Amino acid sequence: MSIISVLNPKGGSGKTTISTNLARSLHEMGYSVLIVDSDPQGSARDWHAACEDNPIELVALDRPNNVKTLTSMAANYDYVVIDGAAKLEDMIAACIKVSDFVLIPVQPSPYDIWAASDLVDFIKARQEVTDGSPRAGFVVSRVVEGTRLGSDVRTALDDYALPVCETTITQRQVYPQTASEGLTVFDADNAKARAETTALSNEILAVLATATREVA
């Protein structure tokens, strides 16, 4: 079982959208997946409740002590995807400690880049005492097609010395439209959205596979 946390202390960075679509992508690949809503605002819970036939299981763990039990509680799943809370340092720290990979979504905005600073410090401090775990990387989200902002933000993120996913998540109406019905892009007729979500999933899986080989 591997735990993937989608974290950014700044609200509005696309955490829930990426978490739910990432989880569904892994499900479509044939893996057993659990979504954990760690945000007291409950956005992932609202999404899950909007569709009675949602194929992804979800639990709410909105206290740090509950998150610490996740490794044993979710041992029967292939992957756990944590939808991270905003601004709650104790919760974010708890998620980092149980994670195998931390995905940090950032919009092409200087405010999002600056807001990630403390999170990166948390992750690097954890990596120093755990021989490099969790692995972590940025994904640039809500990129407007045809603009240079996506490439500009990649350059700005270089200072953090964490990888940036090759895949970007584009600003598409299909994301909020499907979310409002408790669905994902895999329930919609939008090949580009499905392709970019699948590509992001494959990048994360490749990193996790490399980490497993290094430990072995």
Report on the structure:
Helices cover 45% and strands 17% of the residues. Helix 2 links the parallel strand 2 (33-37) and strand 3 (57-60). Helix 1 crosses helix 10 (191-215) and helix 5 (89-98) runs parallel beside helix 7 (117-129). The chain has a single domain (2-215), classed as P-loop containing nucleotide triphosphate hydrolases (Rossmann fold, 3-Layer(aba) Sandwich). The chain contains 10 helices and 7 strands. It is an alpha/beta fold. It comes from Roseovarius mucosus. Residues 4-184 form the CobQ/CobB/MinD/ParA nucleotide binding domain.
Short description:
Residues 4-184 form the CobQ/CobB/MinD/ParA nucleotide binding domain. This protein is of the alpha/beta class. It has helices at 15-28, 43-49, 64-67, 70-73, 89-98, 110-115, 117-129, 149-157, 174-179, 191-215; strands at residues 2-6, 33-37, 57-60, 79-83, 101-106, 135-143, 169-170.
Task: State the CATH topology.
Answer: Rossmann fold
The helical percent reads 40-55%
CATH top level is Alpha Beta
Mean pLDDT metric = 91
CATH superfamily descriptor: P-loop containing nucleotide triphosphate hydrolases
User: Largest beta sheet, briefly?
Assistant: 7 strands, parallel
Count of the domains? 1
Distance between the termini: 16 Å
**Content of β-strand:** 15-25%
Structural class: alpha/beta
Order of helices and strands: EHEHEHHEHEHHEHEHH
Keywords: Hydrolase, Plasmid
Domain CobQ/CobB/MinD/ParA nucleotide binding: 4-184
Organism: Roseovarius mucosus
InterPro entries: CobQ/CobB/MinD/ParA_Nub-bd_dom, DNA_Partitioning_ATPase, McdA, P-loop_NTPase
